Amino acid sequence: LSREDFQRIPELAINPLGDRIINAFFPEGEDQVNFRGFMRTLAHFRPIEDNEKSKDLNGPEPLNSRSNKLHFAFRLYDLDKDDKISRDELLQVLRMMVGVNISDEQLGSIADRTIQEADQDGDSAISFAEFVKVLEKVDVEQKMSIRFLH
Amino acid sequence: MFLLLPFDSLVVNLLGISITVLFTLLLVFIIVPAIFGVSFGIRKVYMKTLLKVFQWATLRIERGAKEKNHPLYKPYVNGIIAKEPTSLEQEIKEMRRSGSGKALDTPEFELSDIFYFCRKGIETIMDDEVTKRFSAEELESWNLLSRTNYNFQYISLRLTVLWGLGVLIRYCFLLPLRIALAFTGISLLVTGTTVVGYLPNGRYKDFLSKHVHLMCYRICVRALTAIITYHDQENRPRNGGICVANHTSPIDVIILASDGYYAMVGQVHGGLMGVIQRAMVKACPHVWFERSEVKDRHLVARRLTEHVQDKSKLPILIFPEGTCINNTSVMMFKKGSFEIGATVYPVAIKYDPQFGDAFWNSSKYGMVTYLLRMMTSWAIVCSVWYLPPMTRQPEEDAVQFANRVKSAIARQGGLVDLLWDGGLKREKVKDAFKEEQQKLYSKMIVGSHEDRSRS
């Protein structure tokens, strides 16, 4: 699958974050994704089942755990993949989401406020741990899961 | 060597007799009823037998799959994932409610908002409403055509034999028959209309022209073994009106035209289609456009208006979707035909895909391949509903009127009513829609700054 194939889906093309989502499927530097890669990305959205909590915690974490789901969302914000959401990155993503309807200053102040609230170690950027802390009350499991009909 | 001679002549005799018998049968059972519009009901019996065979075949497959513990592939009509139809605002409010204890009325931005877009995007990648309309519908039970079978494994000898028999019947018996009929139909159409064209204009000419057209379309209908059920025939389109229908394939034209007398609208083609078009125009006025003219919408609208205002001219047949859709849904109607202001007679066409899927996937098959596929299916079964006429109300504009007609057609035919443009088959979506979504979201977060500036 290439990026153009994804862009042919009309409902994805009108999603303001469509391009970021498409990017999430393609690993670093590649332009094609095969079925395995496609599946791995979609696996993040499998609903969490109860019996998985009792599984062996020493093994590698399943792709659809809460932490991995949060990581997926984190990667959507983190444009340069440096594991930090800087003010610029947040601004860019916000700009994608609102288009031309909000001025730069307004957007800037929204970004500043968000970083202020989330930032705990004072580096003016949101790391993954801070991201998790902010969203600890949000029901990630339910919001980031897609159920298949049987 | 001497023994061969009498044998030879015997074979030739038999061949000659069988061909004559075949032709007489053809004439009596198919062409003559076509001329008078009468039906012997043979096709209905054929359809009932086929249904019984299909049911048996499906049961057999399911039983075989259970025995061998193979998971059966079952197509889902309504989509493969559970989607909740909530709006942007609802979802985001819900997320914030669970996330933070802040007041819900102050609009502001939260990091969790991204979840909404993310999830919506992934859902559409898994299963979206639009792209699946451009490929053939998937069937729930098998109809003995290998082209529709997704479980194609060896299940039982009887099933394979039945399938083989089906192939034999379809390709060796039905196909030549249908091709012969189609050929007869088309040549009769061309010659008939040319001949009628030579007569002087008048009532006699119209009468003959109408019957020549009807007769030839009926022969073509039989050529495809199309079993059509017409509903509500009292609502059939009248002179000076526009007939709109949902579009699944070029066969729609034949199906509608065999029950009524319409003026066609379309592009001028070359080749065989061109010959047919030119011949048809001689007998009665159709509206054929040059390709260059199609782009000029005003010219098109003007010609259509002229045609419609002349009360003696026939109702125009238009397919406002502009492209073939796979008959599970109705896509956006182009507003051009609704701006003219004539009475609109909506018609809903629904094919039964069990006997042969009539959808023309024009990016996959050319016209000839498509026709061959049609002729090697079991039959084309469809229902045609004539809906009561609609006119544009003074307070609605063309787009709203088009949508109203579209909903009526979708409701009648049991199809999904979509707002997407059928042109998305080949083109990308307009940016305007993306901007709409962006606007909606920005409303949710922009209020925060206003609050701030006030305090």
Automatic annotation (TrEMBL), chain A:
One annotated Gene Ontology cellular component of this protein: cytoplasm
Q: Which Pfam families match?
A: EF-hand_7 (PF13499)
SUPFAM superfamilies (UniProt xref): EF-hand
GO MF annotation, one: calcium ion binding
Alphabetized, the UniProt keywords read: Calcium, Cell membrane, Cytoplasm, Lipoprotein, Membrane, Metal-binding, Myristate, Nucleus, Phosphoprotein, Protein transport, Repeat, Transport
What domain of life does the UniProt record list for this protein's source? Eukaryota
The places in or outside the cell where this protein is found are: Cell membrane; Cytoplasm; Nucleus
Q: Name one GO biological process term.
A: protein transport
Classification via InterPro entries = Calcineurin_B_homologous (IPR051875), EF-hand-dom_pair (IPR011992), EF_Hand_1_Ca_BS (IPR018247), EF_hand_dom (IPR002048)
- CDD domains referenced in this protein's UniProt entry, alphabetically: EFh (cd00051)
Domain EF-hand, chain residue ranges per copy: 65-100, 106-141
Q: Where are the transmembrane segments?
A: none
The entry sums up its family as follows:
Belongs to the calcineurin regulatory subunit family. CHP subfamily.
PANTHER family xref list: EG:114D9.1 PROTEIN-RELATED (PTHR46002)
What protein does this entry describe? CHP1 protein
What gene codes for this chain? Chp1
Automatic annotation (TrEMBL), chain B:
Principal localization reads: membrane
One GO BP on record is:
phospholipid biosynthetic process
Q: Report the GO molecular function annotations.
A: glycerol-3-phosphate O-acyltransferase activity
- What SUPFAM superfamilies would the database entry show? Glycerol-3-phosphate (1)-acyltransferase
Q: Which GO terms describe its cellular component?
A: endoplasmic reticulum; membrane
Q: Where in the cell is it found?
A: Membrane
Top-level taxonomic group: Eukaryota
Q: Which residues form the Phospholipid/glycerol acyltransferase domain?
A: 241-352
Q: Which family does it belong to?
A: Belongs to the 1-acyl-sn-glycerol-3-phosphate acyltransferase family.
Q: What is this protein called?
A: GPAT4 acyltransferase
Q: Which organism is it from?
A: Dicaeum eximium
